[in-house]
Amino acid sequence: MLFTTDKQTQEDLNIYGKQGTDSILSLFNRTSTLNGARILEEMFNYPLSDAEAINKRSGAISYLKAIQAVFPFSSELFDQAEPYLANTDERTKLSAERPSLEKKLTSLVANDADYKLIVNGISALIEIASVLNGLLNNTLLREGSPFKNDPETLNISGLLKAEPISLLLQENSKSRFSREKQANFDMLLRFRHRETIQRVLKYIYQFDVYITVAKVATERNFIFPKALPREQHTIGVDSFYHPQLKNAVPNTLVITPDSNVVFLTGANMAGKSTFMKSLGIAMYLAHMGFPVAAKKMEFSVLDGIYTTINLPDNLGIGASHFYAEVLRIKKMAKELSTGKNIFVIFDELFRGTNVKDAYEATIAVTTGFAKKRNSMFIISTHIIEAGEVLKERCANISFKYLPTRMNGTNPVYTYTLETGITDDRHGMIIINNEGILELLKKGKEVSSI
∠ at Cα 202 (110, 145), nearest 5°? Predict the structure, then answer.
């Protein structure tokens, strides 16, 4: 089953970001090759939903981190190899004989510029094959490496022992070749075995991604989560934090089938949204097999993640904020009705309607979520009265809050999760501290007559 998410979730978690803003992708987007960057983005588009595949990827990246592996290829080699392979017009095929001026003028047979492109492409592929052979023998296939028994790595190793790559390994990229040998290589690399060469290059681009992610894990002190079987329905995250915030405050959370709904309260500015984004990002990256900002993490594999944190009004269809919330919950309900194991984050449930409706709807929807023991939910709200009712109705709801401490008339936020429900409300204190009401009292009142 494919891992599912949507654009709203990716925007909430800032996976790709908007123009001019940093994104989660940008934390890792430092590959040496352009195609490596494309593969990286594809990985972000398609997180994994299989525990074995996740652990295999994270294990490979973790190994590269441990041995401090480096990308041994020059990026210029791929700038030469890719345009060469992209030209599949057989009329540009090299001939063993030097073409006459007449042939150059009357056909598309390789001219001087084409000839240079072809020769440079062949030389680049010879160099790439040589470096890859060394990488496999000295790093990836040595004892203790998780790549040693990786089927794709073994297949690539086998390709290096067969034509045409075995022929490349016999050559020196700096040597001058006869026209006949150039023509033979051109036929083999660009036409007869082009798909084989592209498969080898794709393997290198994926290695580029793994090396890059390993470097980021080292620089940022990220850890590699362990994926558990989906039937365990659990998450345990120790000291996780938002990877884009300086001096972020870490938090710890455990979710099990007996506490699969987290009911989160706290005053405005207490850190609820940041807490939820931090956990959502960790879960998203963990399902990619990528390192996360935490001290330790284990999680049961899920079928998808859906968040509602920065939900806009849908004015295009005439939808108010409340109706946009309703449509969002409907979408999640449909996903849940199919039996999927999903992770749901909803910030300030039903903030778009009046207090009475919000109270009743919060109780009803949260009760419905609580019945889905195979999925996990983080629900934040200011309707603390709903929490008191839910305490009596649902034994599997965990009540957490982010506290506010008062220093005189100034609220101080710890950003550290505690157990229980808080009725902290400091909106008027903040308004008074900013002197807004005093500003409004100044100046003359203008009569409406």
Answer: 140
d(CA 408, CA 433): 11
More reliable by pLDDT, 179 or 282: 282
Please determine, for residue 318, whether its predicted confidence score (pLDDT) is greater than 50: no
SS (H, E, C) 278-347: HHHHHHHHHHHCCCECCCEEEEECCCEEEEECCCCCEHHHCECHHHHHHHHHHHHHHHHHCCCCEEEEEC
Q: Are 381 and 259 in contact (CB under 8 A)?
A: no
Which residue spans within 165-243 are E strands per DSSP?
226-228, 235-240
Reference 24, options 6, 38, 40; nearest CA is 40
What average pLDDT does the segment 12-34 reach?
Answer: 90
| d(C-alpha 273, C-alpha 380), whole Å | 9
- Structural contact between residues 15 and 23, judged by C-beta atoms closer than 8 angstroms: yes
The per-residue pLDDT for range 289-311, each reduced to its tens digit, is 999 999 999 999 999 999 999 88
Q: Return the residue matching tokens 């023509």.
A: 183
Question: Which residues is 342 bridged to in the sheet?
Answer: 304
How far, in Å, CA of 289 to CA of 277, rounded?
18
CA pair distance 194, 202, nearest whole angstrom: 12
Give mean pLDDT, residues 210-235: 97
pLDDT in tens, 141-173: 999 999 999 999 999 999 999 999 999 999 987
**∠ at Cα 99 (94, 102), nearest 5°?**
135
pLDDT single digits (tens) 38-63 = 999 999 999 999 999 999 999 999 99
* Domains identified in the chain and CATH numbers: 31-220 (1.10.1420), 226-440 (3.40.50.300)
| Residue-by-residue DSSP string for 372-418 | -TTSEEEEE-S-HHHHHHHHHH-TTEEEEEE-EEEETTEEEE----E
Of 272, 288, 269, 280, the C-alpha closest to 237 is 280
Q: Which of 422, 449, 379, 30 is nearest to 214 (CA)?
A: 30
Phi and psi at residue 297, to the nearest 5° = -155, 130
**Confidence (pLDDT) at 397:** 97
Q: Could you tell me how far CA 17 lies from the centroid of its own chain?
A: 12
Distance, CA of 328 to CA of 307 (rounded, Å)? 9
Strand order in the sheet with 226-228: 226-228, 296-300, 235-240, 251-255
Report pLDDT for 106: 47
Measure the CA–CA gap between 148 and 142, rounded to whole angstroms: 7
Are 238 and 295 in contact by the 8 Å Cβ rule? The answer is: yes
